[in-house]
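Hey, weird one. I pasted the Adenylyl-sulfate kinase sequence into the form twice and got a warning about non-standard characters only the second time. First submission, copied straight from the form history:
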Amino acid sequence: MTRELSQPPGSPFHPANIPGSPFHAAPGSPFVAPIAAASPFHAPNPAGAASPSPYHNLLADNPTLAATTKSANIVWHEGDVSREERQQYVGQKGATIWFTGLSASGKSTIASALEQHLLHNGVTTYRLDGDNVRFGLNKNLGFSAEDRTENIRRISEVAKLFADAAVIALTSFISPYRADRDSARELHEKAGLPFVEVFVDVPIEVAEQRDPKGLYKKARAGLIKGFTGIDDPYEAPEKAELHIRSDLEEVAVSVKRITDYLVEKGYITLKA
């Protein structure tokens, strides 16, 4: 009869209670010995603690990180696959293409068309859409300035993971605040990952005329508060890699412009 490996700590069959088991918590066991003081992960024992806590105060020497995380006792675990190795076997590099602009500017339309175009040309890509993400990952966020910032912070991290996985991430978000977009860029740059900002620009009058979801009409009627472009600001990019006037050019032209830019920069190679 084979016993389950998962046993309560008090069970005589728990690995820690079986002498000779590699998990036996005997003195000198690598599973109970404290990390040496010379280890980069060693940290002082918390006051009053009964046993060593090897990761205590791990964030103490990094005030910036400590101020922005509620997770303590964590250590980054580096895997066995390097970025270069992943890119070699996947057959492409990763990058984030960040679409920004007013509601109804055409961000999602262009991003969707680009996603299909790249996929049909052998480039693995995935689109992250502002509304879609709020159905799941960001469903607990509203549209206050704080929630908008958190919305962009989360999607910046997700896009970075896609890019690190050698996928072209297409993000389509109003992302109205320049500081939030700059933070997304900085996150990628620090990780050594390409970040391409695409400003999908239209006059507010054109956006209101399109109004496919009827949101501008509701905002003008006072039914929606804090709506970007009406009673909440949109801070246009100052140095976007690409500036697209979606009211002046066809979607296919925009897709070609973006694709040509990515090829020129060496971010993608069309295979089809």
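That's the output from the first submission. The warning seems to come from a hidden character in my clipboard, not from the data itself. The beta strands are 95-100, 125-129, 168-172, 195-201, 242-245.
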